[in-house]
Specification:
single chain; 723 residues; alpha/beta; Endonuclease, Chain A; 3 domains; 20 helices; PP_kinase_middle
């Protein structure tokens, strides 16, 4: 691939990053925040959950792992992309020395380092002692008793030693390949009576727990030792006859933003994605993490081998990889975990006799996960369709489905019984490409129609369609959701889904599937908002309408709940609405490129972020439309964030919510989110966030927070329904 093509693809990717020049009015620059710094602020809020003493101990460990995993992905995607762009700019303009992007990378580093220090202090000073109080001991080697060391060494000999592959570096052994996010021990070796340093690398195997549990010596005690320490203190078995001078624990992160030119129509998208996955394994290293006080010679050698600058190297306080603490965070100790939540089965869907198609036929049906059961609703919808002899066709989109997915098993069963099955699988879902390739092949084996969407667009919409032959003719049933068809994340992410057989809406869903699986240059939709076809224009028109109502003295209110807010045109529209006096409530979990409360620009805009035990993933859009009663306004749910990539470069679907009972549910959710003073952070005019704290005068919703409140409301609602 030529350098010019590489640069073009990089520029195309970076269109998702808002820049000041994209604002049509220069005076609006003060209302802009940097995307990447905004994302780092979001991850800082995640880290705060680990610091927050109100959270149970193991939940705090979990948030250390989440913070670390988030940061890993940030380096793989954003830092990798920016470093590549920096190199492309130097090539294109023949610049010697730093370019502006390098300054931006340096600024991000200055934000990241204090966060790493805070994470290390939290683990060492707070969580390790707190866990020890509850008989969970994370021990260093020198804290082990002689008996524990003997048992640890025996475990090493039996379970670790055979799985290790020490790799030397010398003229006969080239520098070893190291996989992304792998943790290794770099040893400094010498031949006896020699002064020459020799390097050897031992990968810490990820097939074993990173913390090894030792047999307890005291009743009810759980004692753990790091796997890396176990390898370090048994290193003489790996290098017999050599002198071990020193060792350093290190971890590498590779760029994941590899792009393969796909203009050649003779190459299938499957072939392109498979090649992209292969190349990703060999992408440049963008970050080197080292344990504290690393050996200087090892540090220098690794920097040279990976072609890294000082800004790419992080000497990490505390543990090197907190993502390896998931097994510890998952320990089943009631007193150290959040109260268990079991999603409630809606009464209409409870029992063996429940017929989901009859329920939907009696009226639209709205579900809210994880408060309500995903298995009894969304899974059951596809499962029942696969088993129902009256069903003639099932169609659905797949963005992320996970490993052991019941959805694909249901589709396979449906195809095997002669039903028409069409599955649109997005092969370029970041970090899920390999899994999606696997399921695509499995479906193709049994004759399902597998397609990969519209060339040049990612298919991100979450929709499913069931076509059923009934006594009065063909009837279509649809599910339109905000989240993926993924059973594991459905218990951790908050999402909404609408089941409907309303003819106008299901016809729109049919038209959308026809556009995705066939050829349709101008698909038409009566009720659905579909990106990139009509969604942006519809949302902008609704904002302009709020401005007109405000000018006429009628109520003007916009509430937007999304994961990210970045699209320049939507930000401009919000600024214009605020300047006209329209109140705009933005509930944005992640980053927002728009600043709230900036005098003369966004004085009427509030931006809040809700962080807690569930990941806020649902997208809700509300426009009061001049109505005196807020419930007479317009409500929508769907898959799209207000980002340029979602509105212009992805296939997304948003549905109106028409039934008043469902509007009441959505208004209740929005009201809880806005009142929250337990999990809520509010943006200040400078772009920083302030955590809200409840007072004695606040009501239960404010004090309990969003997730606890919605659990209680769901339980209460179900009890009333059963009565």
């Amino acid at each position: 691939m030529t350098q010019e093509i590489t640069a073009r693809l990089i520029d195309q990717n970076l269109k998702t990053s808002t820049t000041e020049s994209e604002f049509s009015d220069p005076s609006w620059r003060d209302a802009y925040s940097d995307r990447d710094l905004g994302w780092l602020q979001f991850n800082s809020r995640v880290l705060h959950e680990a610091l927050d003493q109100r959270n149970p101990a193991l939940e705090r460990v979990k948030f250390l792992a989440i913070f670390t995993s988030n940061l890993d992905e940030f380096f793989m995607k954003r830092i990798g992309l920016l470093r590549t762009r920096s190199q492309a700019e130097r090539l294109k303009n023949r610049v010697i020395g730093p370019v502006p992007i390098q300054q931006r990378l340096h600024e991000m580093r200055q934000v990241i380092i204090p966060m790493l220090e805070k994470r290390g202090r939290c683990f060492r000073r707070d969580l390790k002692p707190l866990l020890a109080e509850h008989n969970i001991h994370l021990l260093d080697w020198d804290q082990l008793t002689d008996t524990q060391r003997e048992k640890a060494n025996l475990f090493f000999n039996r379970n670790v030693y055979p799985a290790l592959t020490p790799l030397a570096l010398d003229p006969g052994h080239p520098f070893p390949y190291m996989s992304n996010l792998s943790t290794s021990l770099g040893f400094v070796l010498r031949v006896p009576d020699s002064e020459e340093n020799l390097f050897a690398r031992v990968k810490v195997p990820n097939i074993l727990p990173q913390w090894i549990q030792l047999d307890p010596e005291v009743d009810d005690a759980r004692n753990y030792i790091r796997l890396a320490d176990l390898i370090h203190y048994n290193a003489e078995k790996l290098f017999p006859g050599m002198s071990i001078i020193d060792s350093t624990l290190f971890r590498i992160t590779r760029n994941s933003e590899v792009e393969i030119e796909d203009d050649d129509e003779s190459e299938s998208i499957r072939t392109i994605v498979a090649e992209e996955l292969r190349q990703r394994k060999f992408e440049p290293v963008v970050r080197l993490e080292l344990s504290e006080n690393p050996n200087p010679w090892v540090r220098s050698l690794l920097m040279h081998q990976f072609d890294l600058s000082e800004d790419d190297v992080y000497e990490v306080p505390g543990e090197l990889d907190y993502a390896g603490m998931w097994p510890l965070a998952s320990l089943d100790i009631k007193d150290l975990r959040d109260e268990t939540w079991n999603p409630i089965v809606p009464p209409d869907l409870a029992g063996e006799e429940a017929d989901i198609f009859s329920v939907i036929k009696s009226g639209d049906f709205l579900v809210h996960h994880p408060y309500e059961s995903f298995d009894a609703s969304v899974e059951q919808f596809i499962r029942a369709a696969a088993n129902d002899p009256k069903v003639v066709a099932i169609k659905m989109t797949v963005y992320r489905v996970g490993d052991d997915t019941p959805f694909v098993r249901s589709l396979i069963r449906a195809a095997e019984t002669g039903k028409q099955v069409a599955c649109l699988i997005e092969l370029k879902a970041r970090f899920d490409e390999e899994r999606n390739l696997h399921w695509a092949k499995e479906l193709e084996k049994i004759g399902a129609h597998v397609v990969y969407g519209v060339l040049g667009l990612k298919t991100h919409t979450k929709i499913a369609l069931v076509v059923r032959q009934e006594s009065d003719g063909i009837r279509c049933y649809a599910h339109i959701g905000t989240g993926n068809y993924h059973v594991k994340t459905a218990r951790l992410y908050t999402d909404l889904g609408l089941f409907t057989c309303e003819p106008t809406l299901t016809t729109d869903v049919v038209n959308l599937f026809h556009a995705l699986t066939g050829r349709s240059r101008e698909p038409s939709f009566q009720k659905l908002l579909v990106a990139p076809t009509n969604m942006r224009e519809q949302f902008l028109a609704k904002i302009r309408r709020e401005i007109e109502f405000q000018k006429e003295g009628k109520p003007g209110l916009i509430i937007v709940k999304v994961n990210q807010l970045e699209d320049p045109e939507m930000c401009q529209a919000i600024i214009a609405a605020s300047q006209a006096g329209v109140r705009v409530e933005c509930i944005v979990r992640g980053f927002s490129c728009l600043r709230a409360g900036v005098p003369g620009l966004t004085e009427n805009v509030t931006i809040r972020s809700i962080i807690g035990r569930f990941l806020e993933h649902s997208r809700i859009y509300y426009f009061q439309a001049g109505a005196e009663d807020p419930l007479d306004g317009e409500f929508y749910i769907g898959s799209a964030d207000w980002m340029q990539r979602n509105l212009s470069n992805r296939v997304e679907a948003v549905t109106p919510i028409d039934l008043r009972a469902h509007r009441e549910r959505l208004w209740e959710i929005l009201d809880v989110l806005i009142k929250d003073r337990r999990q809520s952070w509010v943006m200040l005019p400078d772009g920083n966030y302030e955590q809200l704290l409840a007072t004695d005068e606040d009501d239960d919703i404010s004090r309990l927070g969003t997730h606890r409140t919605l659990m209680l409301l769901t339980q209460q609602r179900m009890k009333e329904r059963i009565k």
